[in-house]
Design goal:
By secondary structure, this protein is α/β, with parallel strands linked by helices. The protein has nine helices and 21 strands. It is globular, with a radius of gyration of 22 Å.
Length: 457
C-alpha cells in the first residue's frame, strides 16, 4: 500500500515527481485498481482477450451515445455499437487521425466540462499542438497505475532513487532531503546534469535514448544505475549498444504516446514489448508490399478514457503484433514497434518512398559507429553522418554505402565523418531526417508528425 501513496507522476513515461494521494476515496480506488491491474496481467491470454472485448463493447457504446464525433462516424459507416463485439470488428470503423484532435469539442463526451478534466498536450514537433482530455479515473489508470505495473514488473522498487531526464522540469531547485525521484532538464549543460545526477546517485534512469547515450558517455562511469528505461524516440540498436556499454546494464524501452499514455513496455524476459491489452486495443494494418517495412501501421483504441474516447487512433508508427508468449508467464500479448516517430520517410527522385526502418536495418550492424544519422539533403542526395569509433575505416565507409545502395534504388550515399550530431530543439535525436521540402517527402506512414515526448505522457 505504501507505494500507492507515492504514485510516480510527471515526465518520461510516468516516473516523475512524487505525488501523495491525500483523499481517502481516491486512495481506495487506486488500491483497488492497482490490485486488479497486477492480477489481470497474470490472467491467461484467453482471459485477457475476453476482458479486452468486454471493455471494448462498453467504450464503443459510450462513444456512440455520448460523443457527436463518433455518432457521425458510426452512422456514416452504416454500423452500430452492436456490430462491434471484439477487436476484429473495429475494421469497419473509420480511422481517427491527429487532425481530428485539432478541434476536440466533438470528441469530448457530453456532460464532461473540459475545464474540469485532466489534459495532456503534445510536444508540437510539427508546429501544432493538440490536447487530449481525461477524466479522473482515466488519469489514474493511464498516467499512473499502468506505468506503475510495468515498472514494478521490470524491477523498480519503491525505495529506488529515480533520475528523470526530460524537457520540462517544474522545479529546478534542489529537491527535499530524502527525495527518491528527481527530474533533470535536458536543456541544461550536460556536464552540470552529470554532476548533479552523480550526487543524487540514482538506481534508475529514464529518458530519451539519444540523450541518455550522450549522458552515459560523458559520465565516464560516474553513474551506475541498476535499471535504464528509454522512451520518446526510436531506440535503434547502435544507441542501445552505446547506453548499455557505457552504463553496464540492459536498456528497457517503453512505447507510448501522449494521447493514450503507455501502450507497451519491454519485458526483461524478452526482446519484445508487453501490450497493455487489458486497457488498450492495438491494430497493425497490413504493410504496403515492396516498402521494406516490417509490420503495419499501428492504430490504438483506449478502453479507459470515457471523457474523450479515441477509437482506432492512428499513431503514425509501424509495428508487429506477435504470436508467441513471453517466458515471464504474463498473459499480456507481445508486440514489437518497428518504426518510431522521430524519423522521416525519404522520397527519391523516381518517386520511391523509402521507410526509415529499411535504412536503419541496413547499417546498424556496423561496429565502427558511435552514433549515426541519415540525412536526405535533396531528392538525389543522401548523407550518412557518422561519429566514428577508433575502428571506423574506409572499409566501414564502403560497407555502409554498399548496404544502402539497394535500399536507395541505386543511389550512393555520401558517408561523412562528424565530431557530433546535435539534437533537435526538443532535445530529441532524429536518426533519419529529410531536409527536402514537405511537398517532396513524407513524414511517416501517413505523412504526419512525430509523436510527443515522454514528458507529456
Amino acid at each position: 500500500m505504501a507505494i500507492l501513496c507515492r504514485v510516480q507522476t510527471g515526465g518520461c513515461g510516468g516516473l516523475g515527481a512524487s505525488a501523495v494521494i491525500r483523499r481517502p476515496l481516491v486512495l481506495g480506488r487506486a488500491a483497488y485498481r492497482c490490485y486488479r491491474l497486477l492480477r489481470d496481467q497474470r490472467r491467461s491470454p484467453e482471459a485477457v482477450r475476453a476482458l479486452q472485448s468486454q471493455r471494448l463493447r462498453a467504450i464503443v457504446r459510450h462513444a456512440y451515445e455520448r460523443t457527436e464525433f463518433y455518432r457521425e462516424r458510426f452512422d456514416a459507416a452504416g454500423i452500430t455499437p452492436a456490430d462491434i463485439r471484439e477487436p476484429a470488428d473495429l475494421s469497419g470503423l473509420p480511422i481517427t487521425g491527429r487532425e481530428d484532435l485539432r478541434s476536440p469539442n466533438s470528441l469530448i463526451a457530453r456532460g464532461r466540462a473540459p475545464d474540469r478534466l485532466k489534459r495532456s498536450v503534445t510536444s508540437g514537433s510539427s508546429g501544432r499542438r493538440t490536447t487530449t482530455y481525461f477524466d479522473e479515473d482515466a488519469w489514474l489508470v493511464g498516467k499512473y497505475l499502468i506505468k506503475l505495473r510495468a515498472r514494478l514488473a521490470c524491477g523498480v522498487r519503491p525505495w529506488d532513487r529515480i533520475a528523470l531526464f526530460q524537457e520540462e522540469v517544474l522545479q529546478e531547485h534542489r529537491p527535499p532531503i530524502g527525495a527518491r525521484i528527481r527530474a533533470f532538464s535536458i536543456h541544461r549543460p550536460i556536464e552540470d546534469v552529470v554532476s548533479q545526477a552523480e550526487a543524487f546517485n540514482p538506481q534508475v534512469l529514464y529518458g530519451f535514448p539519444g540523450y541518455l547515450a550522450r549522458l552515459a558517455e560523458i559520465a565516464h562511469g560516474r553513474l551506475a544505475p541498476r535499471l535504464v528505461f528509454t522512451s520518446g524516440e526510436l531506440l535503434d540498436e547502435v544507441t542501445r549498444r552505446r547506453i548499455e556499454a557505457a552504463l553496464g546494464t540492459r536498456v528497457l524501452d517503453v512505447y507510448g504516446c501522449t494521447e493514450v499514455k503507455e501502450i507497451a513496455w519491454q519485458c526483461p524476459w524478452s526482446e519484445a514489448y508487453h501490450l497493455n491489452a487489458d486497457w488498450l486495443v492495438l491494430e497493425a494494418l497490413p504493410g504496403q508490399p515492396g516498402t521494406g517495412r516490417r509490420g503495419g501501421t499501428l492504430l490504438v483504441t483506449s478502453l479507459f478514457n470515457y471523457a474523450m474516447p479515441l477509437l482506432r487512433y492512428a499513431l503514425g508508427d509501424t509495428g508487429e503484433i506477435l504470436e508467441q508468449a513471453c517466458p515471464c508467464g504474463r498473459g499480456l500479448p507481445l508486440v514489437r514497434p518497428t518504426l518510431g516517430r522521430s524519423v522521416d520517410y525519404l522520397v527519391l527522385a523516381d518517386g520511391a518512398m523509402i521507410p526509415p526502418y529499411a535504412l536503419t536495418c541496413a547499417i546498424e550492424h556496423f561496429q565502427g559507429m558511435r552514433q549515426y544519422q541519415i540525412v536526405q539533403t535533396a531528392l538525389d542526395r543522401v548523407e550518412v553522418r557518422v561519429v566514428p569509433l577508433v575502428d571506423f575505416d574506409d572499409s566501414t565507409r564502403l560497407g555502409i554505402q554498399q548496404s544502402l545502395r539497394p535500399v536507395l534504388h541505386g543511389l550512393t550515399a555520401e558517408v561523412r565523418v562528424v565530431d557530433e550530431i546535435p539534437p533537435e530543439a526538443s532535445g530529441k535525436y532524429r536518426i533519419v531526417k529529410s531536409l527536402v521540402p514537405e511537398g517532396g517527402r513524407a513524414a511517416g506512414p501517413q505523412a504526419r508528425r512525430p509523436g510527443g515526448p515522454p514528458s507529456g505522457r
